[in-house]
Amino acid sequence: MLEDICRELNNWFDEDPKDGTPMRYFGTFAIVDGTIGLSETGIKEGQYFRIVGSVNNDGIYQYPASELTDEVFDGAVWLMLVPKAVISLDEDIEAWKEKYGAVDSAAMSPFTSESFGGYSYSKSSRSSSSGVDASSGTWQGVFASQLNKYRKIRAI
Fold it and tell me: How many alpha carbons lie under 13 Å from residue 139 in its C-beta half-sphere?
């Protein structure tokens, strides 16, 4: 889910906080026994990183990753400094998707109200318990206000 969030935000959290330069390392990387050696990058245990340009392993992982598929690839590794609030938001989105994201969920219905045979109902625009809009149908819509502070403008 973190990869989907970063893609939606157009923000990979890969900039050095000191000077704003991207923390991206390009070259030939070897994944052996399910792990990738990144000690020369200064990555810390538990830190997230993104692999780009791999045939089998493109995506976001937490260091040290041990579930990678062995290969040698020419590509890039991006170190990520994901804020704790975004990790927490990732967990909230996963929980929301579990509860409301099913195809048969009322939140996924394109209708906000129905009336038939003397019966009618309207979906609330706000969940009384959480204060989030579960009727928008997508996690992007439901969590837009929390996501927007991390959003980066897309270059054309």
Answer: 21
User: Do residues 116 and 123 lie in contact, with contact meaning Cβ atoms separated by under 8 Å?
Assistant: no
Q: Which residue has the tokens 């704790």?
A: 84
Q: In what order do the strands lie in the sheet with 71-80?
A: 35-36, 24-32, 71-80, 48-52, 59-62
pLDDT category, 156, cuts 50, 70, 90? low
Residue extents of the structural domains in the chain: 24-80, 84-150
- Residue 105 CA to residue 36 CA, distance in Å, equals 41
Of the candidates 10, 7, 28, 4, the residue with the CA atom closest to the CA atom of residue 151: 10
CA distance between the termini of the chain: 25
Amino acid at 130: S
Residue with tokens 């045979």: 117
pTM of the shown model: 0.76
